[in-house]
Amino acid sequence: xxxxxxxxxxxxxxxxxxxxxxxxxxxxxxxxxxxxxxxxxxxxxxxxxxxxxxxxxxxxxxxxxxxxxxxxxxxxxxxxxxxxxxxxxxxxxxxxxxxxxxxxxxxxxxxxxxxxxxxxxxxxxxxxxxxxxxxxxxxxxxxxxxxxxxxxxxxxxxxxxxxxxxxxxxxxxxxxxxxxxxxxxxxxxxxxxxxxxxxxxxxxxxxxxxxxxxxxxxxxxxxxxxxxxxxxxxxxxxxxxxxxxx
Length: 246
Known about the structure:
The protein contains 15 helices and no strands. The protein has helices at 15-33, 42-47, 49-58, 60-76, 82-93, 95-118, 123-128, 130-134, 137-142, 144-153, 159-168, 173-183, 185-203, 212-216, 222-245.
C-alpha cells in the first residue's frame, strides 16, 4: 500500500525538467496549427462526415496519431474539449477503437501534466490550488492507489485537479499511470459509443435530435445513454453513502 507524503523540497530547475513543458508547448502549437480545434462541433462532423471518414480510412495511422496528439494536448492543458473530442473519437473510429485512442491520449496527456507539476514549474500550481488539494490529502495518505482509482471512476473532483493533486502529494508515476489508464476506460467507452451512434444517425441521413427521449428511441444509444446516466449518478450516490457512514 502506497502512503505518499507531501513533497516540500523545492526541485531544481534543469533542462530535463523543462522537457515536459516543451512537449506541452509543441503539442498545443500543433493542435491549433493543424486546425484540429475547428472540427470539434457536431455540425462540422456532420458536414464533413464523408471526407473525414474517407481520410481516416485511407490514412489510418496518421489519423490515429493526430487524434491521440489532440487528446494529449486537451488533457495536458485541461482544455474544455474532452467530451466533444471523445464523441469525435467514437464518430471517426467506432466505439472500441475510439475509446482505446481516447484512453491512450488522455493517459499520456494527464501524465505530462503530472510530471510538470512534480517539477519546479509546478510550484505556482501547488500554491494556487493548495486548498482544493488539501481536501484530498487524507485519501491519498491512506491508500494512494485505491483512492486515485476511485477518483478516476467517480468524478468527485475536476479531471485537471485529479491530475495535479497526486503530483503534490507524493504519488508515484507508476500508480498515477495505472490508475488513470484503468479508471477512465468506462467513461471513454460511453462517450465513444455516443459518437459511434451519431455516425450511424448521420449515415442514415437523419437530423440529430439530442434530447434524451429521442436518443433512447434508437437502439444505437441504449447502452451509451444508460452508461452516461450511471456515470452522472455515481458521484451523487457515493456522496450520499459517505455521509451515512459518517
